[in-house]
Design a protein that fits this description.
Elements lengths: L2 H19 L21 E10 L22 E11 L13 E5 L26 E9 H4 L9 H12 L3 E7 L21 H5 L4 E6 L5 E5 L4 H18 L5 E5 L14 E2 L6 H14 L4 E4 L5 H9 L3 E7 L5 H4 L1 H5 L5 E4 L3 H4 L15 H10 L4 E3 L8 H14 L7 E12 L4 E11 L9 E8 L5 E4 L4 E3 L9 E9 L2 H4 L5 E7 L2 H5 L19 E3 L3
Length: about 550
């Protein structure tokens, strides 16, 4: 093809895009800072810069006039710029490694017979916000005998969650006072330390349940036999699950009631000295090199400090009910670690609280819920801890919860995007420049890989634009913006293909892209496709 004809083809292609994509008002500028209103329509504008055959500048910015390209093709359209205007995604937006959870007690959560589940008769749409499951396992069930481990039920749950693109936050409890409902009830009801630990000689102590006349037993938490059994279990757990992509994080639940590192309700039982607690934290940290570890709610003071030094983050289970608890997580946030929270009780229970502080608990309000998320820079939050799996919470607070799904954790929004194509006598070079803002309240605590591609009118990939951009975990801070540039040469035929446009994708690994998998992370922008790619395309 004659070179002049080649330039005409490129010019004609982008002129067609302009006619199809420009808004009626002819606007050519994108939103400042990406804070476009919900009513703003996506659009694109095309600016063609031309140069005459003698090298003099042409007509300048904007579309060239009708005589810019005449029948003799003495003027060549050699530079074309498309500027896209973008708006936010309309609706809730869940993403991996952040967001909300509800109790998921087993694989049965996903059967239709469970009315509060995602397929239950109540059509519980709280699941639209849920990005990971959470719950507890009993130590004595997972470790029924010395050196014997039964992961069967846990595996069923992990696989069921994985089938629904969710991970699991694991807590293994040694003890729960919740089931001390009579005087000296059967120990297996509440003491979930494996019986073989006591058979080996570990001591237990009689306790009184606060506020009742009930008596029961509890482990002696610093007993050497108990501690060694707990470490043996931790080692087996790490060998089985460290780095397992189905596990979101693991709480270190070795001590106290519910494994929360306190004995507030079991009078007569005492927590170990800090040196014992330090040792257990260090042992877990030596075993788990990949999976995030979490210090339970009542690990405070020097124990909290030591945990952060080891890269172990913090959760708090007293949210909203106890004033000031969100502030306690700021130390973990400032250490560049994810923060985790749960309300002091279930949603409907908290609505009955009297707000009498001290002595009582604060009731749940929308203002307190939003403040808890933003103050603590939360990455993870239990949407509701009752067995109704968030149904009543979401029924009462749908619009608020939907909006906060884009606030909790990271939230990536493309605020500006521009495609510059330069056609020379030798080749065509395309450069995509974009600006992305993290509009959430925390960084992403995993590596993110961004890919730009030319795609056809059906979204099928035609060619990659430039190299993959890697965003290391913890580096894309909340409220900050980053510029990215993707440049590709030698793709004139791709650029000129009818219906061709640009797609952006976010992956959890570069291998996922190379193996042809769909991206798992979604931008907060209109134009998301079913395969989670974002089309920079006018509507």
């Amino acid at each position: 093809m004659h070179q002049d004809s080649k330039f005409l083809v490129v010019f004609a292609f982008f002129a067609c895009i302009c006619l199809a994509g420009c808004g009626d008002d002819g606007s050519s500028s994108g939103p400042e800072g990406g804070e476009s209103s919900g009513a703003e329509e996506s659009s694109s504008s095309v600016e063609v810069l031309s140069s005459g055959g003698n090298g003099d500048s042409g007509s300048g910015a904007g579309m060239t006039s009708s005589n810019s390209v005449d029948s003799s093709a003495t003027v060549k359209a050699d530079t074309t710029k498309i500027t896209y205007a973008l708006k936010r995604f309309d609706g809730p937006l869940s993403n991996p490694h952040k967001g909300f959870t509800v109790p998921t007690g087993g694989a049965w959560t996903f059967v239709p017979e469970f009315e509060y589940g995602p397929y239950g008769s109540l059509n519980n749409r709280a699941w639209d916000l849920v990005s990971y499951g959470s719950g507890y396992q009993q130590w004595n069930k997972l470790n029924p005998a010395k050196g014997v481990y039964d992961w069967t039920e846990l595996e069923k749950l992990l696989n069921a969650l994985a089938e629904h693109n969710m991970t699991y936050a694991l807590r293994v409890l040694p003890y729960t006072p919740s089931f001390i409902k009579s005087d000296f009830p059967p120990q297996e009801d509440y003491d979930w330390t494996p019986p073989f630990v006591y058979e080996m000689g570990a001591k237990k102590i009689q306790i009184d349940l606060r506020g009742t006349e009930y008596h029961a037993y509890a482990p002696v938490w610093d007993d050497p036999i108990y501690l060694q059994a707990a470490k043996d279990f931790a080692k087996a757990l790490a060998e089985k699950y460290d780095g397992d992509p189905r596990i979101e994080y693991i709480d270190i639940r070795t001590f106290g009631e519910w494994g929360e590192w306190h004995t507030s309700h079991i009078l007569g039982s005492e927590m170990p000295a800090n040196s014992v607690l330090f040792d257990m934290l260090e042992y877990y940290a030596s075993l788990f090199k990949k999976t995030q570890l979490v210090l339970p709610s009542n690990g405070f003071g020097d124990v909290y400090t030591h945990a952060l030094e080891l890269g172990i983050t913090k959760r708090d289970d007293g949210f909203i009910g106890i004033p000031g608890r969100p502030d306690t997580l700021l130390r973990a946030y400032n250490a560049n670690l994810p923060t985790i929270a749960e309300n002091i009780a279930g949603y409907r229970t908290m609505l009955t609280y009297d707000d009498l502080i001290p002595g009582g608990s604060q009731k749940w309000t929308a203002e307190r819920w939003v403040d808890a998320i933003t103050t603590a820079h939360l990455t993870y939050y239990v949407l509701d801890q009752d067995n109704d799996c968030g149904y009543y919470f979401y029924k009462d607070n749908k619009a608020l919860a939907d909006s906060m799904s884009k606030v909790i954790g990271y939230n990536f929004t493309v605020t500006q995007a521009e495609l510059l194509t330069v056609a020379s006598a030798k080749d065509t070079t395309s450069t995509l420049n974009i600006t992305v803002k993290n509009t959430g309240v925390a960084p992403s605590f995993f590596d993110v890989y961004m890919v730009a591609e030319f795609v056809d009118s059906e979204g099928k990939a035609l060619a990659k634009i430039g190299e993959t951009a890697r965003i290391p975990k913890g580096t894309f801070k909340d409220k900050s913006s980053k510029d990215f540039s993707f440049k590709a040469a030698g793709q004139a035929s791709v650029v000129a293909q009818s219906g061709a446009t640009v797609a952006l994708s976010l992956y959890e690994s570069e291998d996922a892209y190379k193996s042809g998998k769909n991206p798992t992370v979604r931008f907060d922008n209109d134009g998301l496709q079913e395969n989670n790619k974002l089309l920079l395309k006018s509507r």
